[in-house]
Amino acid sequence: MKYTEIEWNRFSGVGFTFQESEAKVIKPNVAPNGKWALKTEYFGAFPNVEIELLNRGWHIAYQKNDNRWACEKDLARKVDFIKFVSSEFSLQSRCTMVGMSCGGMYAVLLASRCPELVDVLYLDAPVMNLLSCPCDMGNGQGGLYEEFYRFTKKTKSEMLSYRNHPIDHIPVLLANDIPVVLVAGDSDRIVPYEENGAILAEYYEKHGGKIRVFVKKDCDHHPHGFENGAVIADEIMLFTR
């Protein structure tokens, strides 16, 4: 593997190519504790939580997706990537997944596919119901359907009988005791909370799952997270095994 030294937010790291996809691993400036988080999409966006985790000794990893709609090639490649990062950098076999928006879809689908590789899910305004986003068949007005169709070739009529939404995988997450830290805005117009994250929260709370929910009043899809990254990092740390 050929590595290139990189710098990100005053942290050093390495960039490399993994299965024909750009990848990177960012290292803490303090003694590493073996824990690590995978940012599933939008690396560098709203990074307060990742920076806070780095300051606590975590590593942060990322692998670029072909697109943001969790197609099979990207999902399969990420499973291999998680195993590679864990082994190559001497980190724990389970990672925490940071899934914002479409990244939340990646995180849930990956966790249900390989729960043994996942420690905690931090989901921030996650896409859970594809009829809501990108199909805009609920209260959302994200305007993302044309992009979704370009990559998946799935029509809205086909999506009505589709049974691989992230919400369809919630029981698998619960059965495997995967904790969730969920953040969302109550005024999200792109990924409406009631049609997405709320379904996960209600299921977990009804069935005794481990979950911490933050619903931000009068907040749209952005900004993700909180200005103080410690708010979410603390919750993640409480759930890590």
Q: Topology of this protein?
A:
Blueprint: E1 4-8, E2 11-18, E3 21-26, E4 36-39, H1 48-55, E5 59-63, H2 72-88, E6 95-100, H3 102-113, E7 118-124, H4 145-152, H5 156-159, H6 170-175, E8 180-185, H7 197-206, E9 211-216, H8 230-239
Parallel strand pairs: 4-5, 4-6, 6-7, 7-8, 8-9
Antiparallel strand pairs: 1-2, 2-3, 3-5
Helix pairs in contact: 1-8
Task: Describe the 3D structure.
The chain is α/β, with parallel strands linked by helices. The protein has a single domain (4-239), classed as Alpha/Beta hydrolase fold, catalytic domain (Rossmann fold, 3-Layer(aba) Sandwich), CATH 3.40.50.1820. It contains eight helices and nine strands. It has helices spanning 48-55, 72-88, 102-113, 145-152, 156-159, 170-175, 197-206, 230-239; strands at 4-8, 11-18, 21-26, 36-39, 59-63, 95-100, 118-124, 180-185, 211-216. The protein starts with a strand and ends with a helix.
Tell me, rounded to a whole number, the average pLDDT: 96
- CATH architecture verdict: 3-Layer(aba) Sandwich
Total of helices: 8
What percent strand? 15-25%
Biggest sheet overview = 9 strands, mixed
Strand order of the largest sheet: 1-2-3-5-4-6-7-8-9
Q: Structural class, judged by helices and strands?
A: alpha/beta
* CATH classification class: Alpha Beta
Supply the CATH superfamily name.
Alpha/Beta hydrolase fold, catalytic domain
First CA to last CA: what distance? 30 Å
Write down the Rg: 17 Å
User: What level of helicity do the residues show?
Assistant: 25-40%
